[in-house]
Amino acid sequence: MSNILNNKRINLFIALISLLLLITMVQNTYAKYVSSANADTNFTIATWAFVINRQDVLSNSNFSNTITPVFINNDNIKQGVIAPTSEGYFDLAIDASGTDVSFTETITVANSVNNKISDLKITGYQINGGDLVEFTETTNTITTDHLLSDHTRTTTYRIFIKWYDGEGENMDNQADTQASLNDTAKVNVNVGFIQKAN
Asked: Based on the number of CB atoms within 10 Å of its own CB, is 115 exposed (0-12), middle (13-18) or buried (19 or more)?
């Protein structure tokens, strides 16, 4: 008789479990509406682009071929060449219209390590045809802040050079003559850009 009671208890227990499972399934079947959604969002990344003398310097940082020195006419010196007492300039037209952030621009101009004309002087600069600013150091640096709110995003720097000849010169007439035979007059130009912090 106890076997029969145990079997009935087991059957009753199984029946209760089955009933609970059935109620759970029915409840899920008749549950309230449930929904979910998923999406990605795209952020536009600020552009960082600079052009110097019409050359994209991010894709090609050597812009040597874009710099054209201009020498002030002198009846005693052939046009387009440099000689003692020559004065001239070269321009750096920097276009930052493709840049979406404020930045600081630093231009450093100095005689190249390959320059053999020790009397070659970098005398000063102008920004967008403004006042002449004279350099006083051997290494000459121009630092300009450009804010995103600036309406003008193109700046032209005119850098002035001179082959100094006179009192205090490094090269005498013989050295000047020797330089004309096989020496090189070179200036190094470095332009750097850095985003302004908040």
From this structure: middle
Determine the 3-state secondary structure of 78 from DSSP. Answer: coil
pTM attached to this predicted model:
0.74
Q: How far is residue 8 CA from its own chain's centroid?
A: 85
CA 114, distance to chain mean position in Å, is: 27
108-142 confidence digits (pLDDT tens): 998 888 877 778 888 999 999 999 999 887 668 99
Q: CB count, 10 Å around CB of 156?
A: 14
User: Each residue of 7-35: b (16+ CB within 10 Å) or e?
Assistant: eeeeeeeeeeeeeeeeeeeeeeeeeeeee
CB neighbourhood size of 119 (10 A): 20
Average pLDDT over residues 50-70: 89
